[in-house]
Write a structure and sequence with these properties.
It is built from four helices and seven strands. By secondary structure, the protein is α+β, with helices and mostly antiparallel strands. It has one domain: Beta Barrel (Thrombin, subunit H), CATH 2.40.10.
Length: about 150
């Protein structure tokens, strides 16, 4: 791997948080991480993980719980990740003000496989979309999310 690899994406303004969080790589145990910054579209994570660009992670973000994110950029310092489902501004504020991901909001990521939680959330969104429920994500987004779950990475 070169010193810096990346996929080009637009990103929202980041909020520095520098707090403990967690990451789960597919078929791996939960690993401790530092969530350096967060935005509505993604985060930068420092940790001991062996993922590649394009991989999907479960990221335990302080105060707001576990979210699916795709690795978009790798550096020697960590990974820049894009959330599969963007956060709301209120969630970014909560993450900024949270103490740690070890609280009740993210403890589920430590007690069970984060991917199980994410898959359940995406499947619920897919069902809501198919049923035409108000506030459901658009079918194109659901298709992309389901595709990310099936990817071999």
């Amino acid at each position: 791997m070169s010193d810096q690899q990346q996929i080009s994406v637009e990103r929202a303004a980041r909020v520095k948080i520098g707090r403990p969080g967690s990451i789960v790589e597919r078929d791996q145990d939960v690993a401790e991480a530092i969530i350096e910054d967060v935005s509505t579209t993604g985060c930068f994570v420092r940790g001991n993980f062996s993922t590649g660009i394009g991989s999907v992670l479960a990221v335990g973000v302080p105060g707001i719980g576990t979210h699916a994110a795709k690795v978009m950029r790798l550096t020697a310092a960590g990974a820049g990740c894009a959330f599969l489902i963007p956060l709301g501004e209120d969630e970014v504020r909560t993450a900024r003000n949270a103490e740690t991901a070890g609280g009740d909001e993210a403890s589920g990521a430590r007690k069970s496989n984060g991917f199980v939680q994410i898959k359940d959330s995406i499947r619920s969104a897919a069902n809501a979309s198919q049923d035409g429920q108000a506030g459901a994500p658009p079918p194109k987004l659901v298709k992309r999310l389901l595709g990310a779950l099936r990817s071999p990475r």
